[in-house]
Amino acid sequence: MLFRSPILAACLLAIFTLPASADSNNATVMTTVKPMAMLLRAIAPASVEVAYLVRDGHSGHHYHMRPSEGRALQQSRQFYWLGAEFEPIMSKAAQHPSSVNLTQGLANMPTLTKGGSHLWMNPVTAMALAESAASSLTSAYPDNAEEIAANLAALKQQVATIDQQLRADLSDSQQRDFVALHDAYGNLASHYGLTQLAAFYGEHEQSLGAASRAALQQQLQGVDNVCIFSQPQFALKPVETLLADHQLTVLELDPLAADIEFSSHGFQQFMQHIGRELPKCF
């Protein structure tokens, strides 16, 4: 649940039922997390401000909206999210009167898979989300239609180039297995033909149980080098202790892009970072 406090939930409901203020027509759109905001920033008109709810360094799985964030959300022109299937904790925020579910109509895409729900980490899915966002932005800002179309075309070309290069870099690799700190990479793995052996912390951040730890150790018997997908929100030490008999190659693949500069080229830089990290293992 997004709100454990009935008082806070009631306050947010009151915010959404207030008469629209003068600020409600400002050129600001909001989304849930930084990578989605970077995707929007890449295609939105330069005159439109893009903001996101989950603060850097925090987990979206336990998000609690502050009153100031509720006010900012109410004053924004649109709210973009991935729908209740992938971001259930944002269902209350999606009561925004101009809420846009970017996955609506994409449910039959073969790349739209569960596995951490971080859909933006798969370049094909990310570009489908970008196309959906561009359509909505064009409706909201028709005077900027040409700028939005040009931004989308440039983004798609740049991401396709990064994706093509990474596929080439991975083409000769015989190693395809990895262990993740967090169950966040299902869509990335499916796109590049990688296999997640285990996630030490599940989607809701519970740690791997004793039986699963023993099964992982058994599975990795005879494997010298183990690739670990790490991210700053989760402790690496327990995994290093568990797999102390193996040589570990640790890649930092932060699904929330905390260390990537937020800019109109931020999403491309995020994909480039993934492109630099993955060949270190595969």
UniProtKB/TrEMBL annotation:
InterPro entries: Bact_metal-bind_prot9, ZnuA-like. SUPFAM superfamilies: Helical backbone' metal receptor (SSF53807). It comes from the Bacteria. The keyword Ion transport applies. Residues 1-22 form the signal peptide. Coiled coil: none annotated. The keyword Isomerase does not apply. Keywords: Ion transport, Signal, Transport, Zinc, Zinc transport. Belongs to the bacterial solute-binding protein 9 family. This is High-affinity zinc uptake system protein ZnuA.
